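Methods: example folding runs. The two proteins below were folded one after another, and each record is reproduced exactly as written to the output file, sequence line first and structure-token line second.
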Amino acid sequence: MRKVAFVAGVAALIGMPAIAMADGYNAPGRAYERPFSWTGFYIGGHAGLATGDTQGDLGLPANLLNTDYSLNGGLFGGQVGFNLQTGPAVFGIEGSFSGSTVQGNTTCVIILECKRDVDWVATVTGRVGYGMGRSLLYGMGGVAWADVNTNVSIVGVPLLSGSDTHVGWVAGFGFEHALSHAVTFRVEYAHIDLSGGEHDLAIVGGGPVVVRDNVDVKMDTIRLGVNLKFGGRDDVRVPLK
């Protein structure tokens, strides 16, 4: 009886490492790693800089009005998206919303000051990338929206104002790297084209519309971002070679 118990005990001890390894335990002397996958949902935040230019057309002779001037400022906000990785190819979709301090001003019609500012920018983009382990190179493109305001003043006194929600397109590229299985960092360039907005410039304080301004806005942006990733195949372990 003791011999049977001893044999059973030895068999149990021999079987324990196999059971532990099947459950994900790293046996002594053998190293394991968790392969990274870009597949999964993510949410994050970003901040960056924007520069560009804006044009307006009031239907007046060009020599009477200067409506071509520069814009610059900052962007800050958040993004949410989903990636699907198959082999090294990564496909994704992302939505973002940014508050904005982008603005510009110029002297127009001799003594008038024209000012234009972008209140916010939103995008919905598709992404295609090439995954290299924890690093990802990608290109993206899609639709962009922005709230753009035009203000005209004389010696600092508000005179006319108007705004419109512009719809345009965005395209760019970026590099993203996983700092861990859940946290990634990115740097991204994007060109945003917001053409064809119509600003009805009315007298400040509720007065009538004086003139319609056809406004174009173009911006180049550089944004840094951090994402928190969910899902994927990060629970799979493979032995290191």
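Second run, written to the same file directly after the first:
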Amino acid sequence: MQNPHKISGLMIVLSLALAGCQTDGDDELVASNITGGAPAVPGIAPIVVEKPKYPSLQQLNRDIQADPSAPSRYNSRGLHYKRWNQLTNARRDFDKAISLVPNYFQAYRNRGDVYQKQRKFDLALKDYNKAISLNPQYGDAFHSRALTHSKIGNNEPALSDFNKAIKLKPADFQIYHNLAVLLSRQGQFKNAQVNEEKAITLNPNYALAHNGLGVALARNGNFPKSITSFSNAIKLQPKWALAYLNRGKAYEGNRRYDLAIADYNQALVINPAYEVARKNRSRAETKLTLLNERVPVSNDVVPDIYEPTKL
């Protein structure tokens, strides 16, 4: 006799696939170590987003002990392990969820994210492909697959998947930002700017997008506006050394070497091992000395502005 939990679990997942829901999926995938809880940028109405209240590992274990045939409970515990970077345990739970319900498309996407973190990109793509084949309306799987393509240099498939993800999840500000990162890498700074602005419209308190917008503006030579964007990122994340580094480079591009030095110093306060900031500070100090001595300072080569974030 078939296990009733397996039958009911399969029906639930199939119904979700037809509806395009992502109940058990993990929507947290964004390539950054930036955390929430920062103050809003002055002049921008704050968006109040409650932090998700995840169950403890003890509770998740109790849930599984109470019903070891429920696939969603293994998926939930797998997400817990993934959040804490316990990837082997996470993959084991996603494997179990899939063994109980072979059409569990969220579990395929989540396991793909584990493979992506482990840099097993072929396996990640295989799982994302499976999730999408089971549910072609699964925007999160397109987003995850786009990120994986980006990591291995498959730019055209990445662009295609980002655009599909946006069509399916037009209110997901993280997708616009990650697309902008890829566009910046390709030198499409105007398009990157448009996507960062869209991300900021959806979430004005998203520091990554403010920093990314600053990158796009600086790459286009608009240093005054880029400085404003980097400043907004810093207001949201005051301990973000990269944002100070980027603003310092923008100040250099605007010939404000004194302010550039101050930002490099602050980046080094936050991260004393930040050798790029140390090197840039030395360069800016030399330029400031030359400027004070009324020696012409060449600014033909604009200092490189770092990427908004790593995909």
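Comment on the second run: The chain has two domains: 1-6+55-161, 171-311.
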